[in-house]
Structures are given as structure tokens and as C-alpha cells.
Amino acid sequence: MNRDILNDYREKDNKILLAQILDKIEMVEKNNKIEYTDFLDLAQIELVQKFINKIKIENYMVYGGFEQAERKIFIFYPEKFNGTVVEKNLSNIVQIIRIELPDDLKGKYTHRDYLGAVIKLGIERKKIGDIIVDNNGADIIVDKDIVKFLLENLGSLTRFSKSTITVQNIDDLRPVEIKKEELEIIVSSMRLDNVISELARCSRNKALDIINMERVFVNFECETKKTKQIKSGDMVTIRGKGRFFIKELVGQTRSGRTIIKIEKFV
Fold first, then answer.
1. Domain coverage including residue 50
2. With DSSP H G I counted as helix, E B as strand and the rest as coil, what are the percentages for the chain, rounded to 5?
3. What is the pTM of this model?
4. Does the structure show a pLDDT above 80 at 11?
5. Domain boundary among 141, 172, 203
């Protein structure tokens, strides 16, 4: 496979990631077996998706445990396989670490607490997928290679010393409840920087910083053009701030500013 295509990418991190993708694809062709990546974030998923479209790779799937997952892996497979064969092998790729809290701790911990605990044990973020939190505990989607380590060590942390920690098949993921909070914002225009400023509750200059840092996604694609026009039906994701659905343009204020009804995923 011609690796000169990597010269089209200027950023070192992007080149490294895409070189790893090419390695996976070549290993599939050479060894005739399934290969998969680490968990990728939204920006990385977009980068890799465009790249494999460009080099016309067809035998792959993108998987995060459930449809709305933000962190996903790319699974590449030989031509002799199909999607059904890969689906039957998913439990050999990703699994669940389930933490069930004792009664006196139920509802106490957030996503940050669970993620922080895993990171504290020395696990890299790229080995961890989404974390599904409810009142009783959490399901942590992880690379199967770290399951044994987490099972043996999470209980040593004070916050989980009284919890029940088990390994579950990915098919047994606890129900993902999509919670939404409805709110309204008022913007001077539908430009991306104006909308981000209101959604992130920050100044216009800070909103520009967030956009330039590639933390903003519109309809799951990274967007760095501050003048992009946002419209009803768009999904706007701000890494570190949340995901927002532009539900409706309600109307205008007397001064001509636009009132937008938003659904925030919480």
C-alpha cells in the first residue's frame, strides 16, 4: 500500500494515527485476521473515516458498544469475513467492567469519578470507551486486554472498596438512557462562534479558542469555520461541555436577536 498519501497530512499526531491505521489494514491483508484500533474520539473518528474512504477500504466497521457512543473503535477484517462474522467476535474485542455500588454510595459518583479511577490505575484513555452511569453504578466499556487488570485492581481504590465489580459481555450493556434538558439561548446571529459562546457560556474570544482547538463538532464532523451558519436540526458537540440539539428557531427579540430552543444531553 502506497504510504505517500500520509504526506497530505501536516499534523504529526494525525500522521501517526493514520500510519497506525495503515499498519492495521496491512496486517489484515497479511495475516488474514481481524485487527482493530484503540478507542477514538470524535475528531479522530472523523479523520480516520475520511482517510479510509479516500483509500477505498470497504471491509471495516465502527463500533462503540451502542449506537450513540462517542468513543469508538475501527475494526478491519479480511474479505472472506462479513459484518455478521465480526459481530459474533465483538466480545473478543471489547467487554464491560460493571461497578455496582453499595446502598450508601448509590447516586454519589459521576462519569468523571469513574473515569478518574481507571486513569489513576495507569490505564491510558485510549483503552477506555464510553462510561454508562446510573444511580446504581456504571458500565465501563474497555479493550478486553485490560479487563483482567481492572477486575483485580479497581477494588483496591477506596471509593470502590465496597462495590461489586464484575466482567460482562458487551451484549449485556446496561440500558443507555438519553437524558435531555430543554433550554433557550439568544444569539445575535446563527454564526457558529455566536452559538458556541452561548452554549458554552463564555465570551466570544473564548468561543473562538474552543473552535480553533478543534473541540467543536457539527453533525459529528469537526468544524473550525467560525462563520458557519447553524440551523434547526443540527447537532452541536463541544468537547468538555456537552452535546446540544438545535431543536427550533423560536423567533426574534425586539432588538432582532434570534431565540433558539435547545435540547442539551445530560
1. 3-88
2. 40, 30, 35
3. 0.80
4. no
5. 172
